[in-house]
Amino acid sequence: MAEAEQVRSKLGKTYPKSEVVAMQPTYIAELRQLSKNKCCAECGARDVSWCTLKSARFVCVNCAQKLRADAANKLKACSGTSYLWFDDEMQLMREANK
């Protein structure tokens, strides 16, 4: 019997890929709610379609590009809609954006 494919979050926890994929519609909807009426944590712009896991804040695409170029943030800036979100990352975003 084959073992289910595992995937790792940017925070280091491992999950079955099928569970991660199944939760994406719920996570995307929740991120949209969490980011509603938020400004970019870096520059104050109104369009916050990205997140930074390093500070658990929402950022605009321009600041996300800058964060991704910075080696210390390289894998910590994530698209709010095209990235596969994991439970541990969502917990971080929920706690920081109550």
Any overview of this molecule?
- The structure is a single chain.
- The chain is of the alpha+beta class.
- It has one domain (14-96): Annexin V, domain 1 (Orthogonal Bundle), CATH 1.10.220.150.
- The chain contains three helices and five strands, in the order ββαββαβα.
- A three-stranded antiparallel sheet has the order 4-3-5, covered by helices on one side.
- Helix 1 packs parallel to helix 3 (87-96).
- The longest helix has 19 residues, at 17-35.
- The radius of gyration is 14 Å and the shape is globular.
- It starts with 5 loop residues before the first strand and ends with a helix.
- The model has no long low-confidence stretch (mean pLDDT 87).
Poorly predicted runs: none
CATH class: Mainly Alpha
Alpha-beta content class: alpha+beta
Cα(first) to Cα(last) distance is 42 Å
Query: What is the CATH architecture descriptor?
Result: Orthogonal Bundle
Based on CA atoms alone, the radius of gyration comes out at 14 Å
Task: Kindly report the CATH topology.
Answer: Annexin V, domain 1
Mean pLDDT: 87
Domain Arf-GAP: 25-98
Protein name: Arf-GAP domain-containing protein
InterPro entries: ARFGAP/RecO, ArfGAP_dom, ArfGAP_dom_sf
Keywords: Metal-binding, Zinc, Zinc-finger
Task: Itemize the secondary structure elements and their pairings.
Blueprint (H helix, E strand, L loop, with lengths): L5 E3 L5 E3 H19 L14 E3 L4 E3 L1 H9 L7 E3 L7 H10 L2
Antiparallel strand pairs: 1-2, 3-4, 3-5
Attribute tags:
zinc; 39% helix; single chain; ARFGAP/RecO; metal-binding; alpha+beta; 3 helices; GTPase activator activity; zinc ion binding; three-stranded antiparallel β-sheet; 98 residues
